[in-house]
Amino acid sequence: MAKSKLDKLLEAIEAAEKIKNEMVIGEDPGQSKKESFDKFVDAIETAGAVAAVTDNEPAVFDEALNNLIAAVKGFKESANQDTESEDKEQHHETVVESEMPSLELKEVILKGWVDGKKGTHSIHLKNRIVSFVDGRSELSPELAEELQKAGYIE
Question: Would you give the distance in Å from CA 46 to the centre of its chain?
Answer without folding.
Answer: 15
